[in-house]
Amino acid sequence: MTGSSDRTSDGPRPRAVRRRDTERRLAHDVDVWVASASVDGVPYLVPLSFDWDGATLLVATPADSPTGRNLAATRTARLALGLTRDVSMIEGEVKVLGIDALPQDRGDRFAARTGFDPRASVTPYHWFRITPRRVQAWREADELTGRELMRGGRWLG
């Protein structure tokens, strides 16, 4: 398993440790599973590279891909970071941005972090800025209780 060394056989990690582990993952991971659905409820799941600025996740995908169409239509996404036995789940609101809408330095930061620059693609891409509204984190069944770290866009105590 990956994650915090604060895990003991004495029970689940405290909320503060789970939050720290989730924030560490947001700061250091490069890829995230993005779940979306069409307006008629057809699910779609893809891995995408992301950049975290401390408040939002930035992803890019072709505007006409299933994920691009779903995110633009519903303005919601569910994301998963990590492994099934050490996962952080994020539900968020999506803002669609044109590929030229970001400041140059923000696009450069995304490209440097992910190794991919969608601004250079001949395929039309959009940026999707995802603002977390709910965050959960757990490792094993003993961490299911208390897994909610953020609700309504606010970190819990």
Walk me through this protein's architecture.
This protein has 157 residues and is α+β, with helices and mostly antiparallel strands. The protein has a single domain (15-147), classed as Roll (Pnp Oxidase, Chain A). It is built from three helices and nine strands. The chain has helices spanning 15-28, 66-74, 104-114; strands at 31-37, 43-49, 51-52, 57-62, 76-83, 86-98, 125-138, 148-151, 154-155. Strands 1, 2, 3, 4, 5, 6, 7, 8 and 9 form a nine-stranded antiparallel sheet that branches. The longest helix is centred in the N-terminal third of the chain and has 14 residues, at 15-28. The radius of gyration is 16 Å and the shape is globular. Residues 1-8 have low confidence and may be disordered.
Main features:
157 residues; alpha+beta; Pnp Oxidase, Chain A; 9-stranded antiparallel sheet; disordered N terminus
Q: What topology emerges from the helices and strands here?
A:
Elements: H1 15-28, E1 31-37, E2 43-49, E3 51-52, E4 57-62, H2 66-74, E5 76-83, E6 86-98, H3 104-114, E7 125-138, E8 148-151, E9 154-155
Antiparallel strand pairs: 1-2, 1-5, 3-4, 4-7, 5-6, 6-7, 7-8, 8-9
First-residue to last-residue Cα separation: 26 Å
Decide which structural class fits the backbone.
alpha+beta
Order of helices and strands: HEEEEHEEHEEE
Stretches with pLDDT under 50, minimum 5 residues? 1-8
Chain-averaged pLDDT:
93
> Regarding CATH, which class?
Mainly Beta
Gyration radius over CA = 16 Å
The CATH homologous superfamily corresponds to Electron Transport, Fmn-binding Protein, Chain A
Helix content: 10-25%
CATH fold topology: Pnp Oxidase, Chain A
| Count of helix runs | 3
- So, CATH architecture? Roll
